[in-house]
UniProtKB/TrEMBL annotation:
Residues 11-175 form the Glycosyltransferase 2-like domain. It is an enzyme of class 2 (transferase). It is a multi-pass membrane protein. Its EC number is 2.4.-.-. Keywords: Glycosyltransferase, Membrane, Transferase, Transmembrane, Transmembrane helix. It is found in: Membrane. One of its GO terms (molecular function) is glycosyltransferase activity. This is Glycosyltransferase family 2 protein. The chain crosses the membrane at residues 186-204, 239-264, 270-296. InterPro entries: Glyco_trans_2-like (IPR001173), Glycosyltransferase_2 (IPR050256), Nucleotide-diphossugar_trans (IPR029044). It comes from Aequorivita aurantiaca.
Length: 317
């Protein structure tokens, strides 16, 4: 790589109950990290930071026993979630490095593209997004649901990078912009595109998780997606408004028709139509209240202004 100012890089790994995979991942990544140093892609002050997101297994034991000058470690006091673990890592080292890469510790995202990311960084990009151009290792359901999610976000007018998760490189400009986003419900993959700045994409093949299980089972994935939607768009509220208007119009039409029938002396029969209408509108109303409730819940959690994570221990070298 031809360059005068080699960046000081920090690679942040969020870890939650990853004892099964950690030792192997560390070994693999350290070899790669050394090759980056040897190839002068990164400065010798570059570091790796593990953020233990309140694991209940031996994750912290493994991380804290790493007696290695390259390793920094943060232990959160509880399980705050993947997004907040990433925030903790980035915020702790804000302005102390030139570039920051976030990467899942199961190494499903091919770390070798960090070289391409660094190249884009050198060319002046503030954010470089890792994009999965081959997701054949993900289940059919995960691929399809992700695809639907991205197109729904687009329909709502929320900017996301299709097939990008949280594997990205940012510089200090992007990091400082990001730290201005004070929301409780973090959804980084829509926050960074909302920042704007200069960005680029790099592509890779998503690999299979080799050990341990995904921390995003269906329920958590659905709630994460729901959080993304309600954190970034108020269009679902507008949808309720339109549904309400539409059903009011419908009921006026129906009422006029019924009145005419009555005046003509025709008897309108049946409890079935009454029950069906009550159930239909009951359903719509409950659904609408549920959506409004989601937003109120978010406001409630936001106004409490609680810390988004708490650090129990830090090892900084
Ligand atoms: N993770 C975390 N806190 C959590 C859940 C997950 O720090 O509450 C970490 C996890 O250890 C991994 C990354 O976030 O490094 C992504 O999780 P996972 O691989 O289970 O997600 P998937 O790849 O299945 O979407
Ligand atoms: Mg994974």
């Amino acid at each position: 790589m031809v360059n005068q100012n080699i960046p000081k890089l920090l690679v942040i790994f969020p870890c939650y109950n990853e004892e099964k995979i950690l030792t192997n991942s560390i070994q693999k990544f350290f070899d790669f990290f050394d090759s980056l140093l040897a190839g002068n892609y990164i400065a010798k002050e570059s570091r790796i930071c593990f953020v233990d997101d309140g694991s209940s297994d031996n994750t912290w034991k493994i991380i804290s026993s790493l007696d290695d000058y390259r390793v920094n470690a943060i232990k959160l006091s509880n399980n705050f979630g993947h997004q907040k673990a990433l925030l903790a890592g980035m915020e702790t080292f804000n302005n102390q490095f030139d570039a920051y890469v976030t990467l899942d510790v199961d190494l499903q995202d091919d770390f070798r593209v960090i070289i391409d990311m660094l190249e884009k960084y050198q060319q002046g990009c503030d954010i470089v997004y890792g994009v999965r151009d081959d997701r054949s290792s993900d289940s059919f359901f995960k691929r399809k649901s992700a695809q639907k999610f991205y197109s729904f976000m687009e329909f709502l007018g929320v900017k996301t990078i299709v097939n990008h998760a949280d594997f990205r490189l940012i510089n200090n400009k992007a990091l400082n912009s990001f730290l201005n986003f004070q929301e409780t419900h973090l959804f980084l993959r829509a926050i960074f595109p909302a920042i704007g700045l200069e960005y680029a994409l790099v592509y890779y093949k998503r690999l299979k998780r080799e050990e341990g299980e995904s921390k995003y089972p269906l329920k958590k994935m659905a709630s994460f997606a729901g959080d993304g939607i309600t954190s970034f768009s108020v269009k679902p509220l507008r949808f309720i408004l339109i549904t309400g208007l539409f059903s009011t119009l419908l009921s006026i039409l129906f009422f006029s028709w019924a009145l005419i029938q009555l005046l003509l002396g025709n008897v309108i029969q049946g409890w079935f139509s009454v029950i069906a209408t009550i159930m239909f509108f009951g359903g719509i109303q409950t659904f609408a209240i549920g959506i409004i409730g989601e937003y109120i819940g978010k406001i409630f959690l936001q106004v409490k202004n609680r810390p988004r994570y708490l650090i129990a221990e830090k090892i900084i070298r």
